[in-house]
């Protein structure tokens, strides 16, 4: 997946000219930016896509979810934190001017979704942004169609670290007491 | 800032997360409510602690008044007992204890193993009173954890929290707009998942027989044969609430799913000992292949 590709597009649309929805997403997004690295955040998808210019964020920050919710107005729309929130804009630029795009999935306690984030930077200031919800809508139906009756399937394991998951369900969270007891018994058996 | 709790209780690891914004004071307040309630549950239903109500029942017959929210759990156990023809019974407590799965985790089976008696001969449930007619050690391991997850979810709802996950050792309740992806742990390799479930405003519970293993036993015992079922490696159930999902996972060890579905609504996934997988047609998820 292509991320972080400055294409040196000139500034085209100031944030104020965006529609309300996108404008709100922009505001929220800037808050997130200011809070995390002050300039850019690239979300990760399956832990594989990494931003080349910035340390990757963990993608779990709660406010990020508000991007997805920006349509209903219930999010943390902290005004006052506009583009100036990205700080050290004096002196020479840290980042190359241009438009940066990243597709990422993130998780929150409310669930998982993916977003496409586009930022335009000029002199280290975010001058434009857009946030688009990812193509997550079809997944449920895709999963629901997965089970074809009469099709016998055998266990195939995939490493937990290779898959984007919110939680794992299984038996591994056995109580400490039980595990200690088993260890003791094994030790006794060997003695 | 919102609620994000991790702690150990009732012998398992809990993760509780909410996405609604909450002040620090509110978070503390809710955390306390949850932990206090879990403590009450443990002191009522744990057969592993000698100060519990359950323990007392094993020593003294009589009438015991249980907490307000006991009714779903007790009624469900009576239902499961009927549905399974007695194979799923809370009276398995003494059997498990005799087999070594006891308060000291001695894991050494006794010479004589108690077989559960008829449930109705031993107990009678009339909300809010449980009458113990015979001294019996009850065990709520089949659905108790799920019931407690639902109780904790109820506390969050009472606090007007709209989006949350309550996860108690893999028994998970989800509420919120966005579904979550739940990995289904490979019963033979805990670093792997064999698929995933997409959970949205429902509960999932899982059970695998190969972790709590001692001698030839695991935590599921057939009261008739006094042995652990061997044909199933792991099961998952998705249902309206966590107690139901949790109980279904135990029922699935004893009965064919279609039989259980005559009584309850749920989706399931079973991994058999030959590593074949059977899932219900509308199981919301994916099996890796």
**Classification by helices and strands of chain A:** alpha+beta
Query: What kind of oligomer do you see?
Result: heterodimer
Note the run of SSEs of chain B as H and E. Answer: EEHHEHHHEEHEEEEEEHHEEE
Large-scale geometry of chain B: globular
Q: Helicity of chain A, in percent?
A: 10-25%
Kindly describe this structure.
The complex is a heterodimer of chains A (191) and B (289). By secondary structure, chain A is an alpha+beta fold. Chain A has a domain of 119 residues. Chain A has a 3-stranded antiparallel sheet. In chain A, helix 1 runs antiparallel to helix 2. Chain A is elongated, with a radius of gyration of 22 Å. The N terminus of chain A is likely disordered. With 289 residues, chain B is an alpha+beta fold. Among the domains of chain B are: 80 residues, Orthogonal Bundle (T-fold), CATH 1.10.3980; 114 residues, ApbE-like domains (T-fold, Roll), CATH 3.10.520. Chain B has 8 helices and 14 strands. In chain B, the strands form 3 sheets. Chain B has an 8-stranded antiparallel sheet with strand order 1-2-6-7-10-11-12-13. The longest helix of chain B has 22 residues. Chain B is globular. Chains A and B meet through helix 2, strand 2, helix 3, strand 4 and strand 5 of A and strand 2, strand 6, strand 7, strand 8 and strand 9 of B.
Question: Which characteristics define this entry?
Answer:
heterodimer, A: 191 residues, alpha+beta, three-stranded antiparallel sheet, 4 helices, 6 strands, 24% helix, elongated, B: 289 residues, T-fold, eight-stranded antiparallel sheet, 8 helices, globular
């Amino acid at each position: 997946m292509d991320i972080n590709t400055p294409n040196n597009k000139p500034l085209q649309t100031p944030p104020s000219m965006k529609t309300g929805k996108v404008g709100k997403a922009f505001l929220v997004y800037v808050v997130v930016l200011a809070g995390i690295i002050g300039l850019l955040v690239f979300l990760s998808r399956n832990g594989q896509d990494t931003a080349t210019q910035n340390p990757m964020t963990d993608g779990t920050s709660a406010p990020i979810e508000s991007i997805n919710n920006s349509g209903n107005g219930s999010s943390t729309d902290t005004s006052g934190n506009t583009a100036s929130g990205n700080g050290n804009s004096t002196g020479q630029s840290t980042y190359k001017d241009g438009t940066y795009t990243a597709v990422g999935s993130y998780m929150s306690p409310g669930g998982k979704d993916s977003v496409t984030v586009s930022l335009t930077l000029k002199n280290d200031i975010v001058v434009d942004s857009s946030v688009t919800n990812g193509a997550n809508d079809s997944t449920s139906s895709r999963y629901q169609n997965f089970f074809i009756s009469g099709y016998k399937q055998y266990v195939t394991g995939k490493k937990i670290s290779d898959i984007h998951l919110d939680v794992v369900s299984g038996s591994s969270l056995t109580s400490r007491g039980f595990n200690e007891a088993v260890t003791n018994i094994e030790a006794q058996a060997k003695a | 800032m919102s609620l994000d709790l991790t702690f150990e209780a009732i012998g398992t690891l809990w993760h509780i997360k909410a996405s609604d914004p909450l002040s620090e004071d509110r978070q503390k307040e809710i955390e306390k409510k949850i932990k206090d309630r879990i403590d009450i549950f443990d002191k009522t239903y744990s057969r592993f602690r000698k100060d519990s109500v359950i323990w007392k029942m094993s020593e003294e017959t009589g009438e015991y008044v249980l907490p307000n929210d006991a009714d779903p759990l007790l009624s469900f156990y009576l239902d499961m007992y009927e549905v399974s023809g007695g194979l799923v019974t809370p009276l398995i407590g003494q059997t498990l204890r005799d087999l070594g799965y006891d308060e000291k985790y001695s894991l050494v089976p006794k010479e004589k193993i108690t077989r559960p008696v008829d449930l109705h001969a031993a107990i009678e449930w009339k909300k809010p009173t449980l009458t113990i007619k015979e001294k019996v050690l009850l065990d709520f391991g089949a659905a108790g954890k799920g019931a407690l997850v639902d109780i904790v979810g109820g506390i969050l709802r009472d606090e007007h929290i709209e989006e949350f996950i309550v996860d108690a050792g893999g028994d998970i309740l989800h509420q919120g707009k966005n579904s979550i992806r739940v990995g289904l742990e490979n019963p033979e390799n805990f670093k792997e998942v064999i698929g995933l479930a997409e959970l949205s405003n429902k509960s999932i519970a899982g059970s695998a027989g190969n972790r709590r293993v001692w001698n030839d036993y695991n935590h599921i015992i057939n009261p008739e044969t006094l042995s652990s079922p061997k044909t199933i490696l792991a099961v998952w159930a998705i249902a309206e609430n966590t107690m139901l999902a949790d109980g279904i996972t135990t029922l699935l060890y004893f009965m064919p799913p279609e039989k259980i579905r005559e009584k309850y609504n749920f989706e399931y996934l079973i991994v058999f000992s030959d590593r074949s997988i059977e899932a219900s047609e509308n199981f919301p998820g994916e099996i890796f292949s």
